[in-house]
């Protein structure tokens, strides 16, 4: 009834306010607001005006009459945002859900089409936010696609046909794709196989296209010095010593020939996805959720985003149910980075009944963040440095959190703990932390810190994960994790369980992890020599990183041999699994065993069925053999 | 005495706190703080820590023991800043003088050397701030210089010798100058004559170097559409349709040959200043003063800045006394943009006893800002749009200010006025203004607004202005303005009095302007055909823009004929001036008259002395002749 009454009020108000050429919708206090399709041409100003009044005029539900709504950035609220695993810059939004409590946004089946560098839903310092029944898409994409229509294996060239969906110009032999408010070069690229609507088999042999090479002439660069540690991955340092290698020749309208590619020449029929240079190509995620408790997304489709589908930081209790990342309008690519990603979250993270397809990075990644101790500033104060330029401005946690002190060369687990009392943000790279207790005498610059309280329990259930670049699930939480009844068809590992300190500064070692009843269909078809499930650290030692792992009742239908890689693990049970050779693709590493074990203990196999082609089932080091009965059964 | 007592306390505190590897200086309540040279290696963290405590521990004076202090950005306080006439981005500072009252910073003759993208003095929402007795420089510059050591007029090439002060690499035939935290291409360039340590005569025939040309191949760009007005000058739109034209060939260490320059080939001996692409090359002004009353800079030298020496916005009563912009360490260039610049300021602006030399833009520019009416949103509300991308986020004024409504095709003066009641910043391009009164019925989208209360009185006295690119003074304030006893040796106009609405959106028409007792020595030696003093509008009509002008007792020592251009002016008296031909350079426009008059009235000449070479003294249109007795005497 509320819906209907709102619907009746709205057109009247619109009529009244039409003279002022801006629609004003239901300004009085109400439990429900309904936006009519009349605002669809550019819904930004009306929606924004209402959201900004929620404080004075509370509303529990904002609904949209079913329709297709455009959101332009021109009249969107602007914020400078540090966005984990994205670039940090000005974004605009019509939905600044900041400091709100118990609000539901219900699209009622509507499609929201965004233009330019916008964050469709910016959720910050809120509680009890639900977004449901809507689809998100962009008018112009942050990536571009071209189909290989001819190639010349001798001359090492290939020709791409590019549709009018992806306008471009050629500057000094380089392709620049032109969007409304954005442009990008070839940059990071990968092949899609249109027959499978998925990443092409063995794409790593063909891509990335070798866009850059080393500069041949420089002068006096040794005079450019740094007092403090500099990050060579952060632009503009990232551009140093690099120049374009590929040359793009125009053959006709929408037809170009690519010269000088250094890997295998892509086959005719494949579709090349191009998304511009790493470091500047993640600008516009669909959801950015920060410092928020109880966030729900229900029946939401994300067809595209210039970055991730959802990136959540420092939040708790996030439930995504029937949250689907899938491409639209004949595109191969959905989001240009991860479908979902959770940093420093706590409580529960639930992904159920979701589809994560065709995105250009992982389906999800759940982790904390290492930061590096830079200065000891007093008995209770330290200066810390963000290690990765896409974690700038990240807040380590909440007052009262337990902060672990870590020296990875000694142990993956903290050697000490301190209670966070105060965070002073100096800049996005450098912060000063104050603790309740005195810092221990052995803390020294170069040590890492992690937040021991900011890891969530994780459930991933009944999800369809695949056709995407990179991994399925990247799991770095020590809290109870259940991966159940999902299907995987991923280019790289289906499930990667890492400790990655040295490049990504992503913290957290899995323990209490169950992988149950899933189907793994032809994963790791990238061309890489990796297991479908892989436990790995990037530190070369034999310390234990992962504990208490259960992998059972899964189906592995793989074209190649290697299924499981176990490193630095204590306590892993592999039971009631069935492994088949699918025959879907040629084997790339026929000499591989099924299972590799290293620096591990208490590894157990029971009641498994092997129907594959490998000659060796388990390959292991002596230390692991001493500490487990490594017999496949 | 205070100074000495601080000096004694400081080393003790340093000794005590040394163990914590950060110096803490004089934290107790005090009238004066003295920083010792011990902090000089990186003064940022100590200075910043003290400044951030000024609220709790007030201080009226912060002094520095005389020395050379380095300021690195790594531990500097970070802000996202909209900076008028610069780029908008993250900057870092050790001196965030925000919300402070009655504070003096006294360098006592020290030199402050900055590194990277920093704003040495960020002054915001403060009152009674004085900066004195210090020099500002940068370790690595935001521009680069190369000397022409050979050329080939037939082959149309020239060779540049580049010192180790300006490290570079060549990427795909393009020069990239590499700095600690920055890089730039050739971009905007100009010639300096090292014999005169000034901009080279007739540089416009040689520069800018023709770095870009039109793209030859594009596809489907007509599919890239905009719902609202887009700004073609704002990156990335600015890059469209352009590609590199010059080719740079390495000849040896620090020696490059430049091919394909489309203007005259620069002569051997000249120094080419290069500062990167317009639109992204103004990142780091020395002073940014906003919303501040009573700002004083006394005995300050600015040897460099990656932008302006001082940019002030929305501030009042600014006095620069012996504020000198001059190059250091053998460089030709001082600041890479204007020496000083005042936008929307009020009260008094005083520049006295200053030197503004060798900067890459005007000595000063005093103006308001036009913004464009985009939407009529209600009886008292309008949506406005910033016209120029380097005015984004500019606040039109203070509550209670009189806002003028302007339609330039009708008049340079406002057709209506409204009282500002509220500003809602939606984004840096779009704001919503609410007025006390109802807006008039004839206000329509496309009209401009200007703040009638935000213009200052201006005094420029005893200043040495010259050797710089571009103009001396750009004056767009209707308040009383006195330009007295200065010397000018500028590349373009010494004094430009404009109304420039269509490109720069800089508002304000001069009236009550006195130009008295100045010496103009060989100005407009750029090669441009312009007057030394020039009144001009960019709107093609005969409306009056400028009134009540007095030009008297000046010495014009010019190599060429044209001295004065008067357009759209009512009431100008030119008295007791002496005009000589200096013979310094060849005449470029010998056919020119001395004075050009157009669309003017009440123009008067008396008691002047002409000792030049022009055959015609006054050239004018009939309308002006009808309304003035245009006889030079």
Key phrases:
homodimer; 633 residues; mainly beta; 13-stranded mixed β-sheet; 3 helices; disordered N terminus
Spell out the blueprint of helices and strands.
2 copies of one chain form a homodimer.
Chain A: H1 2-17, E1 32-35, H2 44-52, E2 61-64, E3 68-71, E4 77-81, E5 89-93, E6 96-98, E7 101-114, E8 121-124, E9 127-138, E10 144-152, E11 157-161, E12 168-171, E13 174-178, E14 183-184, E15 189-193, E16 198-199, E17 212-214, E18 217-219, E19 242-244, E20 247-252, E21 255-259, E22 271-274, E23 287-290, E24 293-302, E25 310-313, E26 316-325, E27 340-343, E28 346-352, E29 355-357, E30 364-369, E31 371-376, E32 381-386, E33 402-406, E34 416-425, E35 430-435, E36 448-451, E37 457-461, E38 464-466, E39 473-475, E40 481-484, E41 487-489, E42 495-499, E43 506-507, E44 511-516, E45 519-521, E46 533-537, E47 546-552, E48 555-558, E49 564-567, E50 569-575, E51 578-581, E52 595-598, E53 601-606, E54 609-611, E55 618-620, H3 622-627
Parallel strand pairs in A: 1-2, 2-7, 3-7, 6-8, 7-9, 8-23, 9-24, 23-25, 24-26, 25-27, 26-28, 26-29, 27-30, 28-37, 29-38, 30-39, 37-40, 38-41, 39-42, 40-44, 41-45, 42-46, 44-47, 45-48, 46-49, 47-50, 48-51, 49-52, 50-53, 51-54, 52-55
Antiparallel strand pairs in A: 4-5, 10-11, 10-22, 11-21, 12-13, 13-14, 15-16, 15-22, 17-19, 20-21, 30-43, 31-32, 31-36, 32-35, 33-34, 33-36, 34-35
């Amino acid at each position: 009834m509320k819906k209907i009454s709102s619907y009746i009020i709205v057109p009247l108000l619109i009529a009244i306010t039409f003279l002022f050429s801006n629609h004003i919708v239901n300004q009085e206090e109400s439990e429900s607001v309904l936006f009519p399709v009349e605002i669809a041409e550019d819904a930004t100003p009306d929606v924004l005006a209402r959201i900004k009044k929620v404080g004075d005029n509370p509303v529990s539900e904002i609904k949209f009459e079913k329709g297709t709504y455009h959101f332009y950035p021109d009249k969107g609220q602007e914020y400078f945002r540090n966005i984990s695993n994205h670039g940090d810059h000005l974004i605009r939004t019509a939905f600044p859900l900041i400091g709100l409590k118990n609000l539901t946004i219900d699209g009622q089946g509507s499609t929201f089409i965004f233009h330019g560098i916008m964050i469709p839903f910016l959720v910050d310092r809120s509680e009890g936010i639900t977004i449901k029944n809507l689809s998100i898409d962009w008018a112009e994409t942050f990536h571009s696609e071209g189909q290989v229509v001819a190639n010349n294996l001798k001359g090492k060239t290939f020709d791409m046909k590019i549709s009018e969906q992806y306008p471009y110009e050629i500057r000094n032999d380089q392709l620049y794709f032109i969007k409304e408010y954005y442009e990008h070069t070839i940059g990071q690229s990968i092949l899609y196989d249109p027959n499978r609507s998925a990443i092409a088999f063995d794409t790593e042999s063909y891509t990335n296209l070798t866009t850059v090479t080393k500069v041949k002439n420089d002068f006096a660069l040794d005079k450019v010095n740094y007092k403090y540690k500099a990050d060579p991955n952060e632009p503009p340092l990232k551009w140093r010593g690099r120049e374009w290698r590929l040359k793009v020749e125009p053959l006709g309208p929408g037809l170009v020939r690519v010269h000088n590619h250094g890997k295998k020449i892509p086959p005719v029929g494949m579709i090349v996805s191009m998304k511009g240079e790493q470091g500047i190509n993640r600008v516009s995620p669909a959801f950015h959720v920060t410092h928020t408790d109880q966030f729900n997304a229900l029946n939401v489709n994300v067809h595209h985003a210039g970055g991730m589908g959802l990136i959540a930081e420092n939040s708790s209790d996030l439930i995504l149910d029937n949250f689907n990342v899938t491409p639209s309008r004949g595109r191969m690519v959905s989001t240009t980075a991860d479908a979902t990603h959770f940093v420093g979250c706590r409580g529960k993270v639930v992904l159920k009944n979701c589809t994560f397809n065709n995105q250009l990075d992982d389906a999800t990644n759940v982790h904390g963040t290492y930061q590096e101790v830079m200065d000891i500033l007093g008995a209770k104060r330290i200066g810390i440095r963000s290690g990765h330029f896409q974690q700038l401005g990240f807040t380590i946690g909440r007052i009262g959190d337990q902060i672990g002190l870590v020296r990875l060369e000694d142990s993956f687990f903290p050697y000490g703990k301190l209670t966070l009392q105060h965070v002073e943000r100096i800049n996005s790279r450098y912060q000063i932390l104050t603790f309740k207790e005195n810092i221990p005498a052995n803390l020294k610059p170069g040590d890492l810190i992690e937040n021991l309280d900011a890891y969530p329990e994780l459930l991933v259930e009944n999800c369809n994960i695949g056709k995407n670049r990179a991994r399925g699930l990247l799991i770095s939480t020590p809290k109870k994790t259940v991966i159940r009844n999902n299907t995987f068809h991923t280019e790289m590992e289906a499930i990667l369980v890492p400790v990655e300190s040295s490049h990504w500064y992503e913290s957290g070692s899995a323990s209490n992890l169950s992988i149950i009843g899933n189907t793994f269909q032809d994963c790791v078809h990238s061309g890489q020599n990796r297991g479908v499930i892989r436990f790995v650290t990037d530190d070369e030692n034999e310390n234990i990183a992962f504990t208490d792992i259960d992998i059972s009742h899964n189906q592995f239908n793989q074209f190649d041999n290697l299924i499981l890689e176990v490193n630095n693990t204590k306590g892993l049970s592999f039971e009631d699994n069935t492994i088949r050779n699918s025959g879907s693709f040629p084997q790339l590493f026929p000499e591989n065993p099924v299972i590799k074990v290293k620096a591990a203990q208490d590894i157990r196999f029971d009641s498994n069925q092997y129907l594959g082609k490998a000659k060796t089932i388990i390959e292991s080091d002596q230390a692991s053999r001493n500490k487990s009965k490594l017999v496949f059964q």
